[in-house]
Structure formats: C-alpha cells, structure tokens
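ugh ok fine here u go
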Amino acid sequence: MNPLLPESAQHNLVLASRSPRRIDILRGLNFDFEVLPAEDHVEGGATNNDPFERPVECARLKAQDVARRRPEGLVIGADTVVILDGHMMEKPGDEDEARRFLSSLAGRVHDVVTGLALRKLSTDLDLSAKETTRVHFCELDDDDIQRYIESGEGRDKAASYAVQGLGSALVRSIEGCFYNVVGLPVSLLFDLLKKADS
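structure:
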C-alpha cells in the first residue's frame, strides 16, 4: 500500500478501466485496487461535444456505471483524448487512418486531455476534474511513420502512438504531466483522493 494515500483510498478502491497503462501506473504506485471495467456502451451516453470537456463526462459515466455494481467502492473513472486543431483523434480504425493521424501530428503541437472521476454511491461522493498536457511532435517523414505503424504499438492507442514506448522517439517535448499522456494523471488523482478524504 502506498503510504501517501489518504485513508479513504486504502480500502475498496476500484478502477473502472481495463487499460493496461492505467493498471500499470496504479500498480507501480503500490495501490491496492480491483479492476472492474465499465460497460463498453457507457461512453456512448456522453452528450458534451466540446473535446476538452467530453473526457470528464465520459470518466463520470464510467465511474457511475461501476459504482452501481460496487456501491461501497471508491471508483476511479478515466477517459483520455488527443486533440488537434479542436478535433478529437480516436484509436485508428486501420493503417491508413493511423498514417493520417501521425502525418497530421508531425512537427506540430497537440493536447492530451484526461478526465478523471471519483464516485462512491454509499457516501454520495462525486468528484471530477481534468488534466491537459501539450505534446510537441518531431518532424516525421513517410519512412518514420511507416516503420512506427509496422511496430504495431499504436494500434489501440488514441492518435496512434504511445509516449511510454517506441513512440517516445516521435515526441520532441512535453509541457505538463507525462502520466497524463500515458492515460492517468497521477498528481490530479492524488488531489481528488485527498478531496475525497476531507
């Protein structure tokens, strides 16, 4: 157990996500938690089309969905999007879309936004916030992009890259929280957990 965790987070902590990256981050922080993903259809209930606010709504929907099944649990919901020119970039549908994504990111700056939510039905706890990180991409030529696509690393990632893997070679610099780009902003999570304990 992480000694920095507030009391409320030391029991019945539930992660409403199957993301290997989020699971790895929490394990690396010595969290004691259960993994119980939200139902796949839950995100479809989001109505906010503002790309900077939608991840917060999606995170809250995920946390609420799992909290119904674990009313005594302190549920963490998270949703991460990549935003370029005001438009969200999802996971690529195929290699052609991955190529378009990476080509559009090359040599430019984009935003990564993660919405975080904490929900506990038994105490009516409902907290949420978001973290934004600016990512500066390197200039990339067609060969760079093709080689990265062939690695397969970006296949299931928003905007087709992973900053913590081979994709780190695509990134020139980051302004803000590195873990946010991975998918779980650690400092924001601790802030919310402290609020949950107050």
